[in-house]
Amino acid sequence: MGEVHVRKRVLVVDDEPLMGATLEVTLGSEHDVVIVASAQAALALLERDQAFDAMLSDLMMPHVSGMDLYREMRRRGYGLADHVLFMTGGAYTEEAQSFLDEVGGAIIEKPFDMSELSRMVEHIARD
């Protein structure tokens, strides 16, 4: 008997509307996807709803970065912080590299292979 696929609830945080829409279409066939366009919006949502299995966050965003979002989630004790996949356009700073080394964060570079992305979401999602 094959594995039964369980839909995961995935939060996507990306300031580029096209990327959010692409991820919603790509992941939406297998998962329930919620898109927000900023770290501030993600934190506001998580204040009232933390029932997510995984989060994809752009690493570098204006105003509040994915790094800042992660740190704030940790500070608030959100368990979702253990299930984050960071996305990057490849141009990340020395600070971002240090951050990823420090937290051991999973990262995928844009443009990404959609089957690899799906595999990584499955890997980081809560069981």
Structural write-up:
By secondary structure, the chain is of the alpha/beta class. The chain has one domain: Rossmann fold, CATH 3.40.50.2300. Helices cover 42% and strands 19% of the residues. It has five helices and five strands, in the order E-H-E-H-E-H-E-H-E-H. The chain has helices at 17-28, 39-48, 66-75, 94-103, 114-124; strands at residues 9-13, 32-36, 54-58, 84-88, 106-109. The protein has a five-stranded parallel beta sheet. Helix 4 links the parallel strand 4 (84-88) and strand 5. Helix 2 (39-48) runs parallel beside helix 3 (66-75). The radius of gyration is 14 Å and the shape is globular. The mean pLDDT is 91.
Mean pLDDT: 91
Question: Could you say how many structural domains there are in total?
Answer: 1
CATH topology: Rossmann fold
**Shape by Cα distribution:** globular
Report how far apart the termini are. Answer: 20 Å
Task: Report the structural category.
Answer: alpha/beta
Number of helices: 5
User: Spans with pLDDT under 50 lasting ≥5 residues?
Assistant: none
Overall CATH class: Alpha Beta
Give the CATH H-level superfamily: Response regulator
Count of individual beta strands: 5
Strand order, biggest sheet? 2-1-3-4-5
Give the oligomeric state of the chains in this entry, treating copies of one chain as homo and distinct chains as hetero.
single chain
* Portion in helices: 40-55%
Assigned CATH architecture: 3-Layer(aba) Sandwich
Largest sheet: 5 strands, parallel
Strand content: 15-25%
Query: What is the element string, with H for helices and E for strands?
Result: EHEHEHEHEH
Q: Cα-atom Rg, whole angstroms?
A: 14 Å
